[in-house]
Amino acid sequence: VQLQASGGGLVQSGGSLTLSCTASGGTFSDYAVGWFRQAPGKEREFVAAISWNPGMTRYSDSVEGRFAVSRDNGKNTGYLQMNSLAPEDTAVYYCAAGPVIVPSPDVYAWWGQGTLVTVSS
């Protein structure tokens, strides 16, 4: 499975962005989709994930209530809607595909290249 993340950019604090993760080369609907981020000088951290059938989602405490993860299996695309963005959300955001929705990046076998989100204060 090849993943392509897109939608990053520069946004002011309090603003919103929607990231997309488009899959090819496999059966997208077979996999959970996870979103991770990595800020400069920090380790990659879990953000959110959604199960293969969009019934189950999971969020980190830092984004719960502000971010929403979704997917459209017909379009082979996952989404991360980010609202009320703050400067501490600045990071490279990655999407990944794996068997289950868990916070550990080790479980996800396929990764997109990352898209940069910069939130200005």
Commentary on this structure:
- This protein is mainly β.
- Helices cover 0% and strands 50% of the residues.
- It has no helices and eleven strands.
- Strands 2, 4, 5, 6, 9, 10 and 11 form a seven-stranded mixed β-sheet that branches. Strands 1-3-8-7 form a four-stranded antiparallel β-sheet, with no helix packed on it.
- The termini are far apart.
| Approximate strand percentage | over 45%
Radius of gyration, CA atoms, in whole angstroms: 13 Å
- Topology order in helix (H) and strand (E) letters: EEEEEEEEEEE
Number of helical elements: 0
Q: What is the count of β-strands?
A: 11
Overall 3D shape: globular
Biggest beta-sheet profile: 7 strands, mixed
**Straight-line distance between termini:** 37 Å
**Share of residues in helices:** under 10%
Q: Poorly predicted ranges (pLDDT <50, ≥5 residues)?
A: none
Secondary-structure content class = mainly beta
Overall pLDDT level: 95
